[in-house]
Each structure stands twice: as C-alpha cells, then as structure tokens.
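Hello,

Following up on my earlier ticket. Below are the four sequence lines again, exactly as submitted.
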Amino acid sequence: MILHLKRNASPKERKDLLRRLALQGVQVHYSPGSGERILAAIGDRKALDAEALDKHPAVARVVPLDTSFKLANREFRPGRGEVRVGDLRFGGKRIHVMAGPCSVENRADFLAIARELRHSGATILRGGAFKPRTSPYSFQGLGEEGLRILAEAREETGLLVVTEVMDTRDVELVCRYADIVQIGARNVQNFALLKEVGRARKPVLLKRGMMTTVNEYLMSAEYIMSGGNYAVLLCERGVRSFDPATRNMMDLAAVPLVHHWSHLPIIVDPSHGTGNWRWVPPLAKAGIAAGADGLMIEVHANPDQAYSDGEQSLLPERFRALMRDLKKIASVLGRTI
Amino acid sequence: MILHLKRNASPKERKDLLRRLALQGVQVHYSPGSGERILAAIGDRKALDAEALDKHPAVARVVPLDTSFKLANREFRPGRGEVRVGDLRFGGKRIHVMAGPCSVENRADFLAIARELRHSGATILRGGAFKPRTSPYSFQGLGEEGLRILAEAREETGLLVVTEVMDTRDVELVCRYADIVQIGARNVQNFALLKEVGRARKPVLLKRGMMTTVNEYLMSAEYIMSGGNYAVLLCERGVRSFDPATRNMMDLAAVPLVHHWSHLPIIVDPSHGTGNWRWVPPLAKAGIAAGADGLMIEVHANPDQAYSDGEQSLLPERFRALMRDLKKIASVLGRTI
Amino acid sequence: MILHLKRNASPKERKDLLRRLALQGVQVHYSPGSGERILAAIGDRKALDAEALDKHPAVARVVPLDTSFKLANREFRPGRGEVRVGDLRFGGKRIHVMAGPCSVENRADFLAIARELRHSGATILRGGAFKPRTSPYSFQGLGEEGLRILAEAREETGLLVVTEVMDTRDVELVCRYADIVQIGARNVQNFALLKEVGRARKPVLLKRGMMTTVNEYLMSAEYIMSGGNYAVLLCERGVRSFDPATRNMMDLAAVPLVHHWSHLPIIVDPSHGTGNWRWVPPLAKAGIAAGADGLMIEVHANPDQAYSDGEQSLLPERFRALMRDLKKIASVLGRTI
Amino acid sequence: MILHLKRNASPKERKDLLRRLALQGVQVHYSPGSGERILAAIGDRKALDAEALDKHPAVARVVPLDTSFKLANREFRPGRGEVRVGDLRFGGKRIHVMAGPCSVENRADFLAIARELRHSGATILRGGAFKPRTSPYSFQGLGEEGLRILAEAREETGLLVVTEVMDTRDVELVCRYADIVQIGARNVQNFALLKEVGRARKPVLLKRGMMTTVNEYLMSAEYIMSGGNYAVLLCERGVRSFDPATRNMMDLAAVPLVHHWSHLPIIVDPSHGTGNWRWVPPLAKAGIAAGADGLMIEVHANPDQAYSDGEQSLLPERFRALMRDLKKIASVLGRTI
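Thanks for your patience. The regenerated structure is below:
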C-alpha cells in the first residue's frame, strides 16, 4: 500500500503514523526524491487497514496496490524513476550502451578493447571475472585478478564497469571494484544473493532469467529493493523457446510492460538474446525502438579466439557502425546515445 | 540443388539437361526474373548427381543446398526477392502497412474504417470474413457477405484487401474477392490448404504458427511455392511462451533470420504478437527497426464493441500517431512507408 | 448450461420448454444415454435466463457451466462417458491399444504387421494413407490405395482401423474405409476440418496439438461435438518444449485433467510423445498408470527402412514384450488390456 | 575420457600413468566401487591423447566420451550406481518415498506428521527450513529453528531428513542437521552453491530447474561430482510450459533418459510437478511406472492452513491410500517400496 502524506502534516502526526505502522509490524520505505512524502507500507493485509489509514491526519491519500511488487511498482515512485550510476543516469532521455567482451581474458586485450569502446561511444564497460558456465570444466573466469583489470580499465578510460557476482560471499569483493554489480540470468531467483546485493550500496544490474515471467522478474527486483537498495537496472536478455534457430528468444514486449508497471529502467542485451552476432544489430535497433533505456552488447577483437560466447560477439568495427545507426534511431525517438 | 546455366548454352544443350532431369523424376523450378538461367532441381539425392551435372555443357555452376527449403532459399533467388501485389511491391525499399479490424462486422463500419485507414497511410486493408475461433459458439465471420464488403471497400478506397481462407473448398471463392489470401497461424501446417493456395494465382500471406520454428515456417512456404505460387509473404505474429503477461511473445529475430536464409519478404503483426493495444506501438516500431518489410495492425473504431480481439485493436487516432512515428524511423533506416 | 428434466415432466411441458429455447436461438443437445432427460442448452447468456428456466415445470435442475466447453463437459454426461467403436468401448474398464506403422507403405508389409499385432493383443490398427509431412518433398502417403490396404487388413485380421484425414474434401472418402478418423496434431485447430468430421458419423481420434492447452483442446473436441458427432477420443501425444533431448514432451497430467473436466476418453501416444523407441515402453507404462484409456504405438518390422518416423517405431518383439508388462500394470489398476 | 586399467598393472605402471596425467593438468576421478580400476581423466583434448594412453602398459581400454558430463556418465560407473543415504540405498530395487510438508511450520505439527508418514511407509522426511519464495514478503522459513525440529523428528521417528540449502554460507549448517541437502529448482545453475555442496560430505538432492534441459541438468550434477561428492540424487519436478492448467509440466521421459545416459538415481516430485493434489496420485504412479527410483510428495494435515504450497499437498489419508497403490505397481515392476 502506498501512502501519500499531507504536505502540511505536523511532525507529531507523522511520528504517530509511523508508530502505528511499526506497532503492527509494517515495513516502511520512503519513495526516493519524494521528500519523505510518499511511502510504501508493507505488511500483511490485516495489519494494513486502508480505511483507518485514510482517516489518519498525516495521510492525504491511500493507494492500494494490486501487484505483489510494491517498491518496484510505479505507484511507489511516480514518473520514470532514474537510477544513478556514478555521473550517469539510467531511465532518462539518454540511452547508455554497456559493451565489452564476455569474459576478462587478459590485461592487454581488455585495455585495448576498452579504449576502442570508449571511442565508439559506449559509457560502461562489461567483462566477466566470475563466469557462470554450464560445465565445471570450462573457463571459470579470472576472479579477483579480472576485477583488478576492470578497475584499471576504468582508470584509464573513464568508463564505468559492470561485472557479475555469483556468490553471496563475493558481494563485498565485487562491490569494491565494480560500479554496477550484475546478477546473471541463472541467479535471477537466487534469493540469498538478491538479499545480499540488497544490502550493498551499489547499483545492481539484474538480468531476466531464461524462464522468468515479467511479474516474477519484478518480484526479484523487489527482493533487492526491500533490502534498501533501490538502484536496480533490469535487463531483457532473451528467454528460452522451442526454436533452436536462436540461442534465446528476445521478449521485447517486456520493455513497455516494465515501463507500464514499474519505474525501474530496463535495458536490452541482444548478444545473449540471439546468440549470434549477425542478429545483434537488428535486435539492438529493435530494442531501442521498443523504448529500452540502454543496451548491453558483447564486443571482442577476435571472436574466434574468445574464451566464451565468441559467436555472439561483434567485431569492434561492426560495433562502431551499429552505434552510428543507433544514434539516428534514438534521435527520431527524442533520445540520445 | 540450384543450377546456374551458362549464358551461351545452346537450346539443344538446355533441352538435353531438362530431359535428363525429367528422366530421373527431378522437379524443375525457374528462378523468377532470371531469364530461365537459374533453376532449382528438386529430387532425391541419388537422382541428383552434382558432379555429373557440373560437367554438363549447359551448366555453369551447381550450388548444393544444405537446407530442406529449396524455392524459399536465398540461393534460388539471389538478392531480396520482391513480391508484387497489384501495383505494390513487398520486399523493397517501401514498407507496407496492412490495417483494419479483426473481423468484417458490418458494411457501414467497415467502409468507415477503410476510409480512415487510407488517410492514415495504410496501403492494404485487413478484415476477416472466415474467422478461426477457439470456440464453435463464437462469431465465425460473415462469410461471403464479408468478402463482398471487403471488395466494396477496395472499390471505394483503392486499398488492396487481405483476408483469411480456412478451407480448401473456399480458396477459389476467397481468391475471387481478395488481393492477398491469408493462411492463419493455426493453419500454418495445414498442408492440404497450403497445397491448394499453391495452385492459386494470388499472393499468399502465410502467418507463422504459435509453435513453428523458423525452419518449419520456411518449409510451409515451400509447400506453397512447390505448387508454382512464388508470391509468398511471411508474417511474424508472436509465438507461444510461458509468460501470461502477453498473449504471445514476438520473436523479432525471425526477421533477420528469414532475410538471411530466404528471399521472401516478412512483415510483423504486433497486434496478435502482444494481444494488447498498449504494446502495439513500441513493438511495431521495433519490428521496423529489426528490418521488417511491412506491418499488420488491428484498428477498430470501438474496440470495446469489437466482435473479436478488441483488446489488441488500436483506436484510429492512435494508429495515425503511430504511422507518423513509423515514418520517421523508416526514414533513418533508408526506407519509406 | 445443463438442464436436468423432471422424470415426470409431461410431453406438453417438454415441448413448451424446447419451444422457448428455440425461440431464443438456443441450441439443444441431449446427453447420450440419458433418455432425453439431460440436455445442454447453448446460446448467449442473455438468452439463457437460469432463474426463469429453473422455475419451468419441465426442469428439475439447472447446472451452470463455468467452462466454455459444454458438450465435452462432465456435467453434460455424468460419469465416464464411453465411446463405442464397432464392438469396442473406450473409456470403460478395458484399455485399448492402437498399433501399426506410421505410414501404410505397401500391401504385403502392412498385412504382415497387422497379423503380428493382432497376436500381440492390439485391437486397433493404425497406418497413415494421407501423411502430414513438414516437407512437400517427403513421402506424402499412398492416398486411397493406402485406405484400401487398411480395409483389407481389417478384413483379414478383424482389427479395426484408424487413419488420418487432412482435407475437408477427403472426409467422406476416409470415412468409407476407416473405423476411426484421425485428426492430426497439426490440424487440432483446423476448424473447417473439425466441423466436417463433426458432421460425419464416425468416431474421431483428435490428437492434441504441439502447443494446445488442455482447455483449447477440449474446445476443439467441442467443435466436433457441436456438429452432432459425440464420438470423440482424445490423445495426448506430447507438446513442444525447450529441450531437444526428446521430440516432444509428454504431458501426462493431461490424462487426469481431461478425466476431471470431461467425460471423453483419452489415450496416450508415447511414440510421437518421445520420438525415440527407447523411451516408448516406460512412457507407455506411465500413461497407463496415469489412467489413460488406451495407447497408440508405432510398430514397424524394419524401422531403419521406414518411410517416416522409423526412429520412434518399436520392433514387433519389443511391442509384444511391452504388451505383457502393460497387462500386469493394468491388472493392479483394476483394468484389462 | 574413461580409462579401464589392467587388472594386473603393476603399482609402478599405475604410478607412471598418474604422473603423466598430472603433468598435463588432467584431473583424475576413480569410479566408486571399481577398486581404483576405472577412472575418469578430465582435461582439455590436447592433454588427452587417446592413442598414446591406449598403449600405456597400465591401460586396458580407453573409452572416449561424447557427452560433456564425465563423472555423471554411465561409462564412469557401469551399471546403475547406487547412492547411499544412511542405511538406505537409492537406485536399486527399492523405491524410496520422501514425504512431508512444504515448510517446517512448527514443532508440534511437524512431529505429528512425521509419525504419520512413518506409519504410511515413507522413509525420508522432507520439510523446508530455508524457503525460496517468489516474494520477499512471504514466509521465508524458520531457519536453524526449522533444522532443529527436523533433527528432532528424525530422532523420534527414525526417518532420515532432507531439507534445502540456498546460500553457500549455510551449507555447513544445513549439513550438520540434514541427511540429504537439497538444491532447489531455482538454484540448479547456481554454480557457486553446486561447488560448495560438491565439497560437502553429504548426499545431495539436486532438483531440475524449470527450464533446464536434461543435458544441462547432468552438467549441474557434474559440478557437484567434480568437487568430489558423488552422492547425487536427481529429481524431475516439472518444467515450465505454455499451459496454465498445471503449475508445471512433468517431463517423465527424463527418467529413462537419465537412466540411459547416467548412473545417477532419479526420483520424481509430482507435487511441484503438477501443483494440485488431485493430479499427484496419477502422476506419482506414472513416475514409478516410468522407472523412477523414488518419489517426493508433499503431505500436510491441514492443506488450507499451510504456509506454502497447500494446494498441492495431499492429506495424510490420501497419502496412505496412494502408498498402497504404489506398492502394487512397484511389485509388478519387480521393485519394492
């Protein structure tokens, strides 16, 4: 339930309201940027008597919610909520492009591609240090060494960095190096991990699972937010389908759906969404046309030699050409890249 | 197998080649526009001895095919094959928009919406006379009366008309009235019907089934083409998924996939693809950005009163606004609407 | 809406009731075996005033239906409705096994396998004369010649025969030869064909589609029944999934679901359901354990030489061994084979 | 690659072989029960020269593997490998039934149901202490208090206990109380957690994910085994489908597939597999008929009051009746319960 407080409610009235809610075990979250005037009251139905709350002198309006996500709900944060990452803002007019290789493979190559990507207009650098691989015998990432390379690339290029965390015990470590911590598709309902990043003070990029409904996806975001971390970025990266023609099937309707139900920004990852570099440019364009707030694109200087996901990685020159096309589309949609 | 004949092959040499192929039960199809210089030879492997054919004096080049679709294959018709419908061409620079209500409900309303759509820039009018409904007790369409109304609307507006056929026995009737005959998603593997429209001399709009892989889809097109009717338009209209948030899940990667494997044009239907008018504009834009050759959009003056699919129908004014946005996107992609 | 009439309603009262229903355009169907005492009244809601009907002197009880299938609903035909095919009954204590090759390939082989299957305990012979193949270049069946071979096999073995019809124009022809006409998975929502077999006087085996929900499936049965043909057998044959490990994924919960919602018998086809002969015996047993009223199993004397579906065909000796196992399971479930 | 060593290989020859493998970074795992005579050599292809190894004096036979799972492969452990849990063995003639409520809700109720289940013939008690819930606001389990209740129930009834672990940091804690640690469907590709239980010395029940192919599933088992913990039990619990009629769709073909490809035992969970108590008995029977090595069934004395999954919980008397039916089916299949 969302409560809008009266502008002129007295401190005493406010305090009384909070005391009553606390007595009934109701959790309270303030809508960021509302000057503590909009709050979500979360508890079981019996504890939340809408009628009584509506009459409370501090309350201007009670908005009941018909979805199970409360903090991720548009009612909690009217308008399109922006998420800040360093100096960047997601969810506004500007579309951000995260790019980079699937994995951080070694220092020299990573720094080289980082410079290249900055020139092409990417604002955020991606690269996995901890890799979720189907096989225990596949390359599992460089671990902390990879994180250090990411940090060095940030130093040198000024780009921010996003990288995945897979274990609750690594959250602190990854937060020390990354600007955005990523929760991968396979961990979208790893609730222990969601709670842990919910306690962190870093923006989280939460990827949709291969079999997660949009509603469940927003519930996973809610797990993070209910821990107090409201800086959640969503990412549609394709779901599983019956057709082996592509690695996954991109569900671009998720973009307007998320914007309709939630204030959270959502980006699109056509690299995992299609699994083949050929389909990345058309689907990246389609994602922007559908209203996405950003893109995540895999780029590799030698896709054939990539430790992982080479087939879906764009060559740097193809990425550059794509960026030019994306800028044109963004401009006719009233956005910038 | 595709055979490129020598430019200077003598009539006798050509005749000899055809005789040999015929003797082994091989079917021959000429690539349209190739001046009988490119042909598909279709038969079982034993009958098709690539090596021997390669040495035949009439043959310049043998192209083996690794897909089971031959006539729908890009090798059969190099470049992007255009499909003519009246004076319009699908598959070229121009993007065509088919619009109209789900069903033809009555003469007056249909003529009214037809005029409206012409003004908005649609070039083809859609409307069902025979309706495939899940329930036998739902409105089944006006039948031939609906076809007559479609024809009248064409007369008055100059728009071409597309409408669905569901029964082999109705193909002749529907062809008499329609400019394009539509095979609906549920009939995508109704092989008897595909063969029947393959014998017709009308362009066919073949919708993808809810559970059809892109490969199977091209095989269904092949059924029509193998009957001699090469004027096939494909249409991605969403497939079934696990997420009830939308009626179907649009697989926009099908657009570049079809363009990569086949010369056939492909359009996109975001109305069925999403099932809700709210998501139609973003997905229509995304379809165009992904490279679609056209759109099919349901428009109804009173969606609440529609006999079918009201929820996914745009109001005429929303359609007009969408057309304006689409034109802008098309222009930066080097296309027109 | 289902109406139970009073046992002692006078002819005049009954006639009055029917007249009223007819005046409002309500369709009436009598429950088979109810002595015209249970009827389904089908029309739009306004025409069906439950309260007024409840007070009518001929009416004992009004049962509103909350599903869109009426004639397929358990309320229309209380208990487990039996479907007769010749002397056999489906849906009772006895489990029937339909077996045979995918296609009728030639007379000699078909007669040989037919004799073999009779000895193993099958009661119905399957074999396709009209084949729905993904490719127009694959073997399409022997057509009427195949039907004649089926009829001859019936003559010789006493087994009944089931075979597929794909075109509305062939329904009469197929009905002339077959004891059960089959609608294949790809035609489960070919409504023109469903209506046509609804007019036939032959039992229909309606296979579930690869992407048909149980509810839609019962609606397809309703199409047939609303034409007056109540002899419908359902068949779970696997649906499409994301896992390429099997051709389809068998949804055995469909068996108890259908029995809960409907009076129609349901059999199980583990050959198409798995696509590999190795998994046929365990899934056949599982189908029986789940409560299926019959099985359809592909058997071929030379699977490697089969024109279609060889990989999923059992060798005759494996089929014989399976039948022995099935009998044991049936017996502990209180059924016979 | 699997190596069968010669029975009479000398200690020196063996040592030499191991040294060579170690030099090339190849991991060695001995097949349990093989007396160190069968081993899996895991490394990249270049390191594993089959021809050279075949000639090594200690090697009797080299078996190349065409699957990416090595330790889960049937070649690693010929025959059907049994997994011991306390005095019980999974994978042999005896079928084990794990039963209990979804969550441990309180001491008194749990002890009561535990006694009841022992009388009905269950051998393992289930109950969640850490619960993976879609919503952060739903009951999350009693945590360690729940584990203590589980242990007390084991003391009193002699039943073994299985319970879920969700966080790498809790593995040690859960192992202290449980006889089998469960990895839930949502964590099937939580690789950090798989590695952690791979280091534990407790049997692991690994549930299949809602969207996991059988191949990926076996790769997840491989993660656990590659850590040295070979005691893995698999569990088919339904995957996600397009049909909302059931909570999940049970893929019973997974049972024979797993038995064909792997030596690991596999049980079936019809409670999550269907989501409705009505379909649990038929699907439990079907699971056994398909060859499952065990069942997991939710039972609750007051399903309406259950904190979670009440709808899919059987009443104790229904569970008792089901056990009687299962025993009959098991007996005709040559197994016991």
